[in-house]
Amino acid sequence: MSFVNYEHVEILLYNYETLCTWLEILRIDLRAVSDKRVLGDDDDIITAETFKGRSYSHIPLRTAGNISDPTGDIAVKYKKTAGKQAKQLEEEIKKDIFLVVDTIEKINVSMRCLSSLQRDIVKKYYFARCTWSDISSLYNIAERTAQAERRKAIRKIVKIIRIPVELYEEILSKTGISKT
Hints:
Distance between the termini: 23 Å
């Protein structure tokens, strides 16, 4: 199994805020899907489809001895299908949440292993998008020194983070993050 390299880590760091935002959106989606399953919005949809463009007098009623109820059969089939689809969607969202949380936590843990200067430089460069001139002025060091500290930091993160390339590719694919 191969793990992310220097360039992969840089892409993840550049897109850290995107990952955090995507996680928030996934959590909102999960709540929405879970609430819909609990609240039973499907009944409203079935009722609306049944009554669409009709008055109550045009709705078929189940009479004694009548075995067939096409509207009821459609409603039951729809409800079962909708329930399965909602459950599948919920599981997919949970999987995506796990993937993003795992990635964010690995970034956070690896950042804690850096020296305070390295951590600050990485945050300023990748998260705040500061220029090398700004960073060197802020920490009263030469630009080349700041760049060297950043390179050391990224190499250290690569050793610690250990995200499989397959998961990295999946994250990029799902979030729409560019590889460049």
